[in-house]
Amino acid sequence: MNAEPDSTSRREGVTPDGLLHSGSDGEITAEDVVLASGRDMTPQNVAWAERKLAEKGRAALDELLP
């Protein structure tokens, strides 16, 4: 049995592994913070994430990831 998830299978509402990234080697965006928080991508949540990034910088994302 393969312990790795099948990145080619599609499950409704789940982001494929190939599209996920942590931003570790690039700029972190408000959208990254929203997605890491598990919130919906709404203007209100993007504004919340922008405030978090302004306040905490890269740590805003680090706090949300395991």
From TrEMBL:
It comes from the Bacteria. Residues 1-27 are annotated as: Disordered. This is Uncharacterized protein.
